[in-house]
Amino acid sequence: MEIRRDYYLEQLISRKHNGLVKVITGIRRCGKSFLLRTLFKNHLLANGIDEKHIIEISFDLYDNIQFRNPSIFYPWAKEQLQDHNQYYFLLDEVQLLDEFVSVLNGLADQKNVDVYVTGSNAKLLSKDIATEFGGRGDELHMYPLSFSEFMSIYEGNKYDGWNEYVTYGGIPLVVLAKTEDQKITLLENLFKETYVRDIVQRKKIRNTAEMETLLDILSSTIGSLTNPNKLQRTFKSVNKSKITATTITKYLEYLADSFLIEETNRYDIKGKAYIGTPSKYYFMDIGLRNARIKFRQMEITHSMENVIYNELRMRGYRVDVGNIDMFEHKKDGKKERKQLEVDFICNKGSKRYYVQCAYVLDTEEKREQELRPFLRIKDSFKKIIITSNTSKPFYTEDGILMMNIYDFLLNPDSLEL
């Protein structure tokens, strides 16, 4: 079964012939290769490109090991240019090619060459692609299936679909598996045999148990504020470990560089400045997170928050955690300092949205709790509360948009309602 990834395909198509190296990044098995070598290639063929002018190489295949040597690959690549017509190079897992930056820049320098590559590691491809490629790189970051992409092939209603998605996530290989047992086995094997092993081998980690314990802690505390020092105290009290905060920081960087997790920082809304630690960490696929904790501790509130975070990032927003300092008078007349939190501040260009996640607002107390931070924000940017039980989108008398999780996830323009 073919899963359409129209959002990413359209972005690739819009980048054609821009003179830059198009770099598709993302966690392993999220669909990068399928996007490039099936969906995009089919687009080229459908638009009249001769198959001889589409050059494909997967550097992770045994048959192509010799091409990881730039002294072999580069002359071979130039030999494929038999005329002055446009050629398209579709290169998979390019981080395995030695000196890939200079090689790709050299290819892109050819007037009739358009270069597209995939890579599964942020460090090897740099978090700043444009800088890594000397201003000649153009990054397209890809995520596992969104809920709307998942529902495009799901044979059932959105409520059952949500229950499956929030349990097993959106890794295409897992989504296409037929049974729950197959999904669980695939997720557990992917974590152990692909993601963890890749980090351990690449970074030459000796004490793998510490990094795996860190993964367990992060999996159990998604959406909670933490930092390396706090994590170190957890290691010491629970595992009697002597691991340092410096080592924990390195492990967090490794996990982020492999796109397993993302860090979101705190932003002082009134002071208009970043606060620094502590931060929050979210998993790029909720199914991988659940597999890590053996499908226990699956609090729907935290899982929903993680899914909403990923959706906002898929839509291209920079996402921070909002912090509001305030003072309240106690009964004795003294002032008490309190901090209110906005789950997400979403920025893209001149657009900003404040988003709160609340699984249910079943009491007036809960409703006031979620509304309270918004009422302290004095700017005019849109404020949104996403729940599981709002019947349809509506605005409160304070101008706050209320919507349910299905309307938010299934409508790409839901923030504009």
Tags for this model:
single chain, 417 residues, alpha/beta, eight-stranded mixed sheet, five-stranded parallel sheet, 17 helices, 13 strands, 22% strand, globular
What does this structure look like?
This protein has 417 residues and is α/β, with parallel strands linked by helices. 41% of the residues lie in helices and 22% in strands. The chain contains 17 helices and 13 strands. It has helices spanning 6-14, 32-46, 70-79, 100-108, 122-125, 129-132, 147-151, 158-168, 172-175, 180-203, 208-220, 228-239, 245-257, 286-292, 300-314, 364-375, 405-410, and strands at residues 21-25, 54-58, 87-92, 113-119, 137-141, 261-268, 273-283, 318-329, 335-348, 351-357, 382-387, 394-395, 401-404. The strands form 2 sheets. It has an 8-stranded mixed beta sheet. The chain has a 5-stranded parallel beta sheet with strand order 2-3-4-1-5. Helix 1 packs across helix 2. The longest helix has 24 residues, at 180-203.
Question: How would you sum up this structure in a few lines?
Answer:
The protein has 417 residues and is an alpha/beta fold. It is built from 17 helices and 13 strands.
What is the overall silhouette?
globular
Mean pLDDT: 92
Strand order of the largest sheet: 7-6-8-9-10-11-13-12
| Low confidence ranges | none
Number of strand segments: 13
Order of SSEs = HEHEHEHEHHEHHHHHHHEEHHEEEHEEEH
Strand content: 15-25%
Query: Helical content, roughly?
Result: 40-55%
Major beta sheet, specifics?
8 strands, mixed
Query: What count of helical segments does DSSP give?
Result: 17
Q: If you compute it from the alpha carbons, what radius of gyration comes out, rounded to the nearest whole angstrom? A: 23 Å
Q: Give the N-to-C terminal Cα separation.
A: 33 Å
- Tell me the quaternary state: single chain
Q: What structural category arises from helix and sheet content?
A: alpha/beta
